[in-house]
Design a protein that fits this description.
By secondary structure, the protein is mostly helical. It has one domain: Ferritin (Up-down Bundle), CATH 1.20.1260. It contains 10 helices and 2 strands; from the N terminus they run βααβαααααααα. The chain has a two-stranded parallel sheet. It is globular and about 55 Å long.
């Protein structure tokens, strides 16, 4: 029987969005139907490396990306492209969580394969909307910030669960409601519907990060609140920005004290 780790590596290495999405859908179905094994012992994963990427978009530093308003079709397309790029990265982040961290409960792998499948669907929803506006994925520059955090946390599953779902992906919980309100004011109901779906499902993705972060902490015998604070200071102090969506973060597994500390740091 084929290994889940091999399927994850294949999804990570897929160089086109079409291949990455197709492989993700196939692997998710195979795991759900019992066609992928999760070996109890397996060789160590490869050293972290950039996942497969198409030639476009060009990746530049986030500070060099131009600021565009939502009032024009071009500006709206650029915004949708930026979200699509985040979702494509999120597919790889979920698969790397599967591939890199081994010997964990089956429920861990089921959670992150399901996240990868959701992110692939989100990407396609956004790409379809982008095409309706006369553009496609790759038409605008993008940045590589999400994958850089994957590289920094490749050595430690606890740090990965704390910093990718609960910091980077949780940022979407904070900013998406405001973007939805702006698009509603512009009458862009099609994009609003997509973002509402993504927001609802991303709460569950961040909640998976919260759940497995606490599982790791319990296994290591460390206090989750204290360890989260230490990791924020070490890795993410400069990237935290408020305001924070308290209701969404509470639904995603944060507690009141954690949110208060985020607000203090920001």
């Amino acid at each position: 029987m084929r290994s889940l780790y091999d399927a994850a590596r294949g999804c990570l290495d897929a160089a086109t969005p079409e291949d990455k999405v197709s492989r993700t859908e196939t692997a998710a179905l195979a795991l759900a139907s019992g066609q992928l094994a999760i070996p109890e012992s397996a060789p160590a994963p490869d050293a972290v490396r950039m996942p497969g990427r198409p030639l476009a978009p060009r990746l530049i530093h986030a500070r060099d990306l131009p600021k565009r308003g939502l009032g024009s079709t071009h500006g709206r397309a650029a915004f949708i492209h930026s979200i699509a790029h985040i979702e494509l990265n999120a597919i790889d982040l979920a698969w790397d969580a599967v591939y890199r961290f081994r010997g964990l409960p089956a429920a861990y792998y089921a959670d992150w394969v399901a996240v990868a499948s959701d992110e692939a669907r989100h990407f396609m929803m956004l790409r379809d909307r982008l095409r309706e506006l006369g553009h496609d994925y790759g038409d605008f520059d993008a940045h590589n910030g999400l994958w850089e955090m994957a590289e920094k946390t490749a050595h430690d599953g606890l740090a990965r669960m704390a910093l990718v779902p609960r910091v980077l992906e949780a940022r979407g919980l904070d900013v998406t409601p405001g973007m939805i309100a702006k698009l509603q004011a512009l009458g862009d109901d099609a994009t609003v519907a997509i973002l509402e779906t993504i927001l609802r499902e991303e709460i569950a993705h961040v909640a998976a990060g919260s759940r497995w972060f606490r599982w790791y902490c319990e296994r290591a015998g460390v206090d989750p609140r204290a360890r989260f604070r230490e990791l924020l200071v070490e890795y993410a102090h400069g990237s935290l920005r408020g305001p924070f969506n308290r209701d969404a973060r509470l639904a995603a597994g944060f507690d009141v004290d954690e949110i208060a500390y985020l607000e203090q740091l920001a």
